[in-house]
Amino acid sequence: MKKPKIRELGEAIKALVKGPYTTKYPFKPPIIFEEYKGFPRFQDDGCVRCGGCAEVCPTHTIERRDFPKEGKRVMFRDWGNCIVCGQCALYCLTQKGIVMTNEFDRSTLNKKEINESIEDELVFCEACGDIITTKKHMNWLIDRLGELAYSNPTLIMFKNYELGLAEKDAGKNHEGFWREDHMRILCPNCRRNLVGKEDWGEQ
């Protein structure tokens, strides 16, 4: 057996005096660089609850859950499935709804601690009752389009309702589509049927 080198012997003595040369984690917080890519997080102000992140998530970590009876949409994330790929942040509609943090430790025995959710009110079609999107998404579209938003009757009426300038469903109790229905909040299908009736007399 070869005798240990002087340097190796010195390292062994240092380890005996100072302790092992390792980090004190998890007993002390680790030093994490800002550039380190950790888990993504929802941002309440930037997220419009459009559900685009749920569409691109490869592990279905993010889910879009609609509750029509309660009139709300919940964006739900299960950290236990997240592979930290960053697709949700990369393809976020607003680029502010999800940010990548440098947080890497989500270990816990409490399952509730690995779940995250945010919600918003739904916007429904006034003709068929189908879900269109959320209020935050509508307001984001209006802000994004600026004056061009006034070319879209659905956005106009949504903003009028928000400002209290129009009474919802006032004088709209009739079957089929009338010309006045242009100034209503309609889903794409109902808007197409309305325009088709106006132009071609078909519904």
- Topology pattern, helix = H, strand = E: HEHEEHEEEHHH
Mean pLDDT: 87
Rg (CA only): 27 Å
Per CATH, the architecture of the largest domain is 2-Layer Sandwich
Strand content: 15-25%
Tally of helical segments: 6
Name of the CATH first level of the largest domain: Alpha Beta
What low-confidence regions span 5 or more consecutive residues with pLDDT below 50?
none
Largest sheet: 4 strands, antiparallel
Distance between the termini: 94 Å
Number of domains: 2
Count of strand segments: 6
What is the SS-derived class? alpha+beta
Helix content: 25-40%
Q: What is the molecular shape?
A: rod-shaped
At CATH level 3, the topology of the largest domain is Alpha-Beta Plaits
Strand order of the largest sheet: 2-3-5-6
Structural overview:
The chain has 203 residues and is an alpha+beta fold. The chain folds into two domains: 36-123, Alpha-Beta Plaits, CATH 3.30.70.3270; 125-203, no CATH class. Helices cover 28% and strands 16% of the residues. The protein is built from six helices and six strands. It has helices at 6-18, 52-56, 87-90, 135-145, 153-163, 188-200; strands at 40-42, 62-67, 72-78, 98-100, 115-124, 131-134. Strands 2-3-5-6 form a four-stranded antiparallel sheet. A hairpin with a 4-residue loop joins strand 2 (62-67) and strand 3. The model has no long low-confidence stretch (mean pLDDT 87).
